[in-house]
Amino acid sequence: MEISKIRFAVFASGNGTNAENIFTHIGDNPKSEVCCLVTDNQDAFVVTRAKNHGINYHIVEKSSGDNKIKHEKNIVKILDTYKPDWILLAGYMRILSPFFLEKFSGKKGQSRVINIHPSMLPKFKGMDAYRQAYDANVDTSGVTVHFVDSGIDTGSQIMQESFPRYRNDTFDDFKSRGMNIEYTLYRKVIDQITGQSVRERCDGYH
Q1: Which pTM value belongs to this model?
Q2: Which entry of 58, 71, 117, 146 is annotated as an active-site residue?
Q3: Mean pLDDT over all residues of the chain?
Q4: 87-102 pLDDT, tens per residue?
Q5: Could you give the 3-state DSSP secondary structure of residue 39?
Q6: Are 163 and 200 in contact (CB under 8 A)?
Q7: 3-state secondary structure of 146
Q8: CB-CB neighbours of 44 under 10 Å
Q9: Contact indicator for 161, 119 with CB cutoff of 8 Å
Q10: Beta partners for 164?
């Protein structure tokens, strides 16, 4: 009997370097697949990345007449056709509502939505975390992968990894070092999901 693959939906809003990393890594794992990309930005380069990988994509922009829930209901309708086991945020620039998170939660109430944030949470939450850390003259910063809850970067942490800031670092040097950590860390977490440990924290998600 063939074991069904673990299905991931990826959400992204921009260039999509983290999404590209996810597409490649999951594509190399016979136990998993990216079932679709969802973006809220028709001009996002991540759409081109999805096309190059043969991944179905859906552009769901929020119109001026839509509130958050209406916009998210449109996304949920799409996801209902794919039935993803997990949602991976990769630079998705919207805060998800409790309505959405409840649709994608395990039996324990833990969401099956995962985000990557470029700081050692709880430090430097929110937008422009690399810039926040750089301007604060930190000696070390880091990257956190966490479950998503209804707050801003407040969900339960899955994995963190730090990296140094060197005396002569420009901001671009500092950010580039962090982004390399992002790619490595997201791959590690995906491997944990396909290997059970993260899934067990959700007490079964099917």
Answers
A1: 0.92
A2: 117
A3: 92
A4: 999 999 999 999 999 9
A5: strand
A6: no
A7: strand
A8: 22
A9: no
A10: 140
Q: What 3-state class would DSSP assign to 8?
A: strand
Q: Give the SS3 label for residue 26.
A: helix
Going from N- to C-terminal start, the domains of the chain cover 6-200
- The CATH code that applies to domain 6-200 is 3.40.50.170
- Please report the pLDDT score of residue 198 as a whole number: 59
- Chain position carrying tokens 């491997």: 191
At 206 the pLDDT is: 37
Using an 8 Å Cβ cutoff, are 170 and 139 in contact? no
| 8 A C-beta contact, residue 164 and residue 137 | no
| Nearest by Cα to 37 from 84, 71, 69, 74 | 84
Q: What is the pLDDT of residue 205?
A: 41
CA-to-CA distance for 156 and 109, rounded, in angstroms?
12
Q: pLDDT for 38-50, tens place per residue?
A: 999 999 999 999 9
Tell me the two tokens of residue 174. Answer: 């500092």
- Over its C-alpha atoms, the chain yields an Rg (Å, rounded) of 17
Q: What are phi and psi of 5, to 5 degrees?
A: -75, 150
Rounded CA-CA distance 111/205 in Å is 9
pLDDT band at 1 (very low <50, low <70, confident <90, very high): very low
| Annotation says 117 is catalytic | yes
pLDDT computed for residue 196 by the predictor: 65
